[in-house]
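User: Fold this; C-alpha cells only.

Assistant: Input:
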Amino acid sequence: MSFSRSLLVVGLLALAGCGSSSDFADLRSYMDEVRAKPKGAIEPLPTFQPYESFTYRAASLRSPFQPPVKIDVVARQKGSAEIKPDESRVKQFLEGFNIETFEMVGTLRNDRELFALVNGAGGVHRVKVGDYLGRNHGKIILIDESKVDVMEIVPDGEGGWLERPRSLTLKERS
C-alpha cells in the first residue's frame, strides 16, 4: 500500500502545482492589454470591390484559329429592278412566321383544286396556290401530293430583290 500512497501524494503535489500564478503571467499581460484599449472603438470593415461580370460577346465571330473565308463578290446574284414585293396587299396570317417553322403534313382535294395542310404557327392550316407563307413574301406557286413549292422575294442587300424558290416536302410519320 505504500506504493499507492506515494502515488497519491505525487498526484496531489502535481495538482497543487497547476494552480501557481506564475504560469499564467503571459495570459494576464495579454488580458491587461485588451482591457487597456478604449471601449467602443471597432475597426471598420474592409472595403470590397464589387464583382463586375463579364459577358463574352465574340461567340458569333469567326474563330481566330480558322483562316478567313474569302467571299467571291462577282459570283453573288444581283437583284432585278422588275422584281419587288407588293407592299400594298393585305398580309395573310401565315406571313407572320418564318417558313422554317412550317412542315407539310398532308393534302385535301375537292372538285376544283388541291389544298396542302401545313403544320406550324400553332396548328394545322389549309393553304392553296396563290396563298402567302413566311416572312419573305413567299407565294405558293405549286401544290402536289408530296410537296409545296413557294417562291420567296428576298432583298439582295444592295437595294434590289431576288426570287428564291423554297419547297416544303411531305413529312411522313415514322
